[in-house]
Specification:
Helix content: 25-40%
Distance between the termini: 45 Å
Structural class: alpha/beta
Shape: globular
Order of helices and strands: HEHEHEHEEHEHEHEHEEHEEHEEEEE
Radius of gyration: 22 Å
Number of strands: 17
């Protein structure tokens, strides 16, 4: 892909040198798969829709290097899945911070490259940045990755998300069967609902195989802290945990450190099998390409958020193929593979659910009563702030 597009913030032109901050260290200012710029659209909200016969230009924005073996790579793989679609042109920019810099990137993608669809992939891009820029471009569709869309927002704003509880449940079943010690470690970023849900889903899957299995959680405190991620992984290995799972922006450090220590690992976001050829079990993986292909089909049919042809929210899980499991490593035997396929089939057809009571927290209190079940889309699950039975760790 071409790396032609160079982003230069307006304030850089005015004030001089301004380095774009990033979560990871890599080349920062580039976009691929873009040809010469199209005519500039009016920043006062004039039509940015492509003319008949011109490709639909979609701009993807990442908050870290797109080859991070994590959240951003998963989105980049999804973008690549639609890049060769006739009538579609992809432009990308990586390592864009969650500041006003992303507003400049969005405006430049629209003004310089004629983007009529913007996909800002990081949670922190939404408020105020997407909300602010969308006002100036009512004919451009802004599709944010997250669950932050709500009724009453501008008509050209939508969102999408993949719920990973079922994938984590399956990964937990695999981990429990692969663990010889019955001790699982988990390295998490922050004790917030999405991370806690992933920990609990993983544990519920593990305990469905081994009811007495134990898990120790270590929170690093932020999404990308490589030194603390390595320290947490080594600490868990020192304590005899023989499987380590993870939920940080890029699992790379955790997976590589576990491999060096001879510990099995379960990844997240994208496929990390290449990082740990011996110890990688699998990982819950986002299939963003499935969602992006759905969008493209609608766009090519002339449907938009604004004409109500495109839903303002896409949310799904394993049944919709929005999530899946990554490559199986050598420790995942044929019996384990058969077990996970059978368990997956039950989740897909609805005969099995992850959150089925009675479920207790790690202090012994019943949080989901017997006889109560919640699908992964249930709003009650967004309120989970407790760790499940068998998990050692604190959420505050």
């Amino acid at each position: 892909m071409s790396n032609r597009y160079i982003y230069v913030p307006r304030r850089q032109v005015i004030r001089g040198i301004l380095a774009t901050a990033a979560f990871g260290a890599t080349s920062k200012l580039w976009t691929g798969c873009s040809s010469s710029p199209t005519d500039t659209a009016s920043t006062s909200g004039g039509s940015a829709s492509p003319d008949a016969g011109k490709p639909i230009t979609i701009g993807f924005i990442y908050n870290a290097p797109k080859a991070d073996y994590g959240w951003n790579q998963a989105h980049a793989v999804g973008a690549a899945a639609i890049a060769s679609t006739p009538g579609i042109k992809i432009i990308e920019q990586e390592s864009v911070p969650e500041t006003k810099e992303v507003q400049e990137v969005m405006r430049n993608m629209i003004d310089q490259d004629g983007a009529t669809v913007i996909i800002p992939t990081s949670f922190g891009y939404f408020d105020p940045h997407v909300l602010e820029v969308a006002k100036s471009y009512p004919d451009v569709q802004f599709l944010h990755c997250g669950t932050l869309w709500k009724e009453g927002l501008a008509n050209n704003i939508g969102s999408f998300f993949a719920l990973v509880d079922e994938g984590q449940y399956l990964a937990g079943r695999i981990a429990a069967q692969a663990s010889k010690e019955g001790k699982i470690g988990f390295v998490g970023a922050k004790p917030i609902n999405p991370v806690i849900r992933n920990i609990n889903s993983f544990m519920l899957g593990a305990r469905s195989i081994k009811p007495d299995i134990k898990m120790q959680v270590i929170f690093t405190g932020d999404w990308s802290l490589p030194v603390k991620e390595a320290e947490a992984t080594n600490s868990l290995a020192d304590q005899g945990f023989d499987v380590i799972a993870v939920h940080v922006d890029s699992p790379k450090v955790v997976i590589e450190t576990a491999e060096k220590r001879g510990v099995l690992s379960s990844g997240f976001h994208s496929d990390q099998a290449a990082l740990a050829p011996k110890g990688y079990l699998t990982g819950t993986m986002y299939n963003w390409g499935t969602i992006y292909k759905n969008y493209v089909e609608l766009f090519k049919a002339g449907k938009t958020l604004m004409n109500s042809g495109v839903p303002h929210q896409f949310i799904g899980g394993i049944a919709e193929d929005y999530i899946g499991l990554a490559t199986f490593g050598p420790a995942v035997t044929e019996p384990i593979k058969k077990d996970v396929e059978a368990a997956k089939a039950k989740l897909v057809d609805g005969s099995s659910v992850v959150y089925k009571g009675a479920i207790k927290d790690n202090a012994g209190a019943v949080k989901i009563p017997a006889g109560t079940t919640y699908k992964v889309t249930a709003p009650e699950l967004t309120k989970i702030d407790w760790l499940a039975e068998g998990v050692s760790g604190k959420t505050s």
